[in-house]
Write a structure and sequence with these properties.
With 210 residues, this protein is an alpha/beta fold. Helix content is 35%, strand content 16%. The chain contains six helices and six strands, in the order βαβαβαααβαββ. Strand 2, helix 2 and strand 3 form a beta-alpha-beta unit.
């Protein structure tokens, strides 16, 4: 069983300030985003957060971020399909205002019930959890590494954080995940024999200094 999980969000993407749902669209990192990911890797090395293995989403913004961070440890990231960002279906690539104008009732439903609502041809938060959590659990239980890093996305990271901290999924958007941020979860030996390891959130949403 892995002892430490270093959970990282990808760096800033091109057009990040346009407030659009990008989801599974394969948008590249901005120049700032590349610097952020590199800075996160440097910070981790300087402060003793040393992964033995790095996994990442198959989307290019996560792969590039993972490679930049991994360069500080001499590691080659491995892509994992299940770490892909939430699929926003018909909403992908559209701004908040465009979605509200085209699907006002659906957008209102999303605002009031982000847990169960899913855009047309997209995923709900519950469906993202059903996809992501088994994948992460599998990595934690089958990896030969003691300390692993996962480079993923804002939505995916929030689901993982809720799962391991016991925060109700209804509160997922109360957790911020800035670009290239670092979260650290430690898995402690259980007090009760036969119980699973106890996940403890040591660090959350640490932003790199570029």
């Amino acid at each position: 069983m892995v002892k430490s999980l270093y959970l990282i969000r990808h760096g800033e993407t091109e057009g990040a300030h346009e407030r659009r749902y990008k989801g599974t669209l394969d948008v590249p990192l901005s120049q700032l985003g590349e610097k952020q990911a590199d800075s996160t890797g440097r910070y981790m090395k300087e402060h003793g957060y040393l992964p033995d293995m790095i996994y990442c989403s198959p989307l290019s913004r996560a792969i590039k971020s993972a490679k930049l961070a991994a360069s500080h440890f001499g590691l080659n990231p491995r892509t994992v399909e299940g770490l892909r960002e939430r699929d926003f279906g018909a909403w992908e690539g559209l701004s908040f205002d465009e979605i509200a104008a085209r699907w006002p009732k659906a957008f209102s439903s999303w605002a009031h019930d982000p847990l169960r609502f899913s855009p047309l041809d997209g995923e709900s938060t519950l469906e993202v959890r059903e996809r992501v959590v088994p994948v992460v659990e599998g990595l934690l239980h089958t990896s030969d590494a003691e300390h692993i890093a996962i480079v993923a996305h804002g939505g995916v990271n929030r689901v993982i954080l809720c799962h391991y901290t016991g925060v109700p999924l209804e509160n997922i958007f109360r957790m911020d995940q800035g670009f290239a941020c670092l979260n650290v979860i430690r898995f402690h030996d259980p007090v009760t024999e036969g119980a699973p390891p106890l996940p403890v959130l040591e660090l959350m949403n640490l932003m790199p200094v570029v």
